[in-house]
Every structure is written in structure tokens, then in C-alpha cells.
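Changelog entry: the NAD/NADP transhydrogenase alpha subunit record was regenerated in this release. Current contents:
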Amino acid sequence: MKCISVYTNNFELFSDIFDRVVESPLEENEEQEVEGITISHSGDVPEHYLERMAQKPEVVVMKDKTRGLTILQHGKVFEILLPALEIA
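Regenerated C-alpha cells:
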């Protein structure tokens, strides 16, 4: 899964820029700024990362079922987990 980190603890700001963040073509380890919020492509994370993070009481797990995305919020960061694109 591809992980995009959004460095804010403000849910309203995160919601405002969410669509642009998901649609941003980021290269691995690339950072950008969207409306004053730093976002970065944090690389790929293994499947067990989501399971491990979801068990922590300080982590909020949200799903965007229409896009198949999972969002983790902890501390001052949101992590958007995008499923890997299947190559035929």
C-alpha cells in the first residue's frame, strides 16, 4: 500500500484538502505543500502495518469505501493508505 502523510492535526483542514492530496502525483519521498499543509509520499507500507496501527488506542481508523482508501490519524499526522495498483 502506498502511504501519503499529511502533517496536521486539524481534521477540518485535512478534509478540505483531502481530494487534492489523493489526486496529487507524488513520487516516493517527495514533499509538497497544499494550502500551507505539508504532505509527503512516505513510500509503501506492508499489509500488517494497518493491522498493527489499528490496535493502538491513540489511532483513529477511517475508511473511504468508494475509493478503497484507509485513513489513519494519530498525533499530528494523517496517513492515507492507498491500495497498490495491480499490474496486468
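The first strand starts at residue 2 and ends at 6.
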